[in-house]
């Protein structure tokens, strides 16, 4: 009588080993989310360690947005010599497949735009293995810096004129008050009435 508990284990082993036997790469999915943060109009370098270090052989790189689902970069050295880049990312997204031999794959996304923010799937297949990671790109908007212009020469001249006229008015008012006070004191001294003693 067969042991029915070993059947699920046998099915899992067959499912995992059959793709490798057929020449298809095994899938290594990284469940962690790699987050890249950058400012608008700056650059961000996405990097991944390939599933195996391979100096030659097949190489497939696929970078896709999740919403809307769209391939933005694809390279397969067996099918196409030149990589495919989506129109929205042309001239701004550059991946270097030659770095696979050094143990790292990098893609540079230049001149970030707010529309670039979001989630991406990045798949690399080489040496009979495949690795897939989920990325998130967060973009901080840059506030435009406004420079206050220095006042123009004519404005500076007007401000100086207003200050001079104001000071002149204060001085004239002060002198007028002094003159009035001095006249008032002489007037009261001249017409000073002595109290008379009436007995």
In brief, what are we looking at here?
With 199 residues, this protein is α+β, with helices and mostly antiparallel strands. The chain has two helices and nine strands; from the N terminus they run H-E-E-E-E-E-E-E-E-E-H.
What does this protein structure show overall?
The protein has 199 residues and is of the alpha+beta class. The protein contains two helices and nine strands, in the order H-E-E-E-E-E-E-E-E-E-H. The chain has helices at residues 6-21, 153-190; strands at 26-39, 44-48, 59-65, 70-76, 80-85, 93-95, 105-109, 118-126, 129-140. Strands 1-9-8-3-4-5 form a six-stranded mixed sheet. Strands 2-7-6 form a three-stranded antiparallel sheet, with no helix packed on it. A hairpin with a 3-residue loop joins strand 4 (70-76) and strand 5. Residues 9-15 and 19-25 have low confidence and may be disordered.
Helices and strands in order, then pairings?
Elements: H1 6-21, E1 26-39, E2 44-48, E3 59-65, E4 70-76, E5 80-85, E6 93-95, E7 105-109, E8 118-126, E9 129-140, H2 153-190
Parallel strand pairs: 1-9
Antiparallel strand pairs: 2-7, 3-4, 3-8, 4-5, 6-7, 8-9
Q: State the helix count.
A: 2
Look at the helices and sheets and give the structural class.
alpha+beta
Classify the helix fraction into a percent range: 25-40%
**Percent of residues in beta strands?**
25-35%
- Count of DSSP strands: 9
- Spans of at least 5 consecutive residues whose pLDDT stays below 50 are 9-15, 19-25
């Amino acid at each position: 009588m067969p042991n029915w508990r070993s059947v699920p284990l046998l099915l899992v082993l067959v499912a995992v080993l059959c793709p490798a036997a057929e020449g298809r790469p095994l899938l290594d999915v990284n469940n962690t989310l790699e987050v890249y943060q950058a400012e608008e109009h700056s650059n961000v370098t996405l990097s991944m360690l390939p599933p195996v270090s391979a100096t030659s052989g097949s190489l497939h790189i696929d970078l896709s947005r999740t919403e809307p689902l769209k391939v933005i970069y694809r390279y397969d050295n067996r099918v196409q010599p030149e990589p495919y880049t989506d129109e929205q990312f042309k001239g701004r997204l550059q991946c270097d497949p030659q770095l696979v031999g050094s143990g790292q794959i990098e893609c540079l996304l230049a001149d970030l735009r707010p529309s670039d923010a979001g989630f991406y799937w990045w798949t690399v297949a080489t040496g009979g293995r495949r690795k897939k990671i989920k990325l998130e790109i967060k973009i901080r908007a840059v506030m435009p810096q406004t420079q206050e212009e220095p006042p123009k020469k004519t404005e500076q001249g007007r401000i100086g004129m207003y200050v001079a006229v104001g000071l002149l008015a204060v001085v004239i008012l002060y002198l007028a008050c002094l003159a009035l006070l001095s006249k008032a004191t002489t007037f009261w001294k001249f017409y000073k009435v002595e109290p008379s003693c009436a007995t």
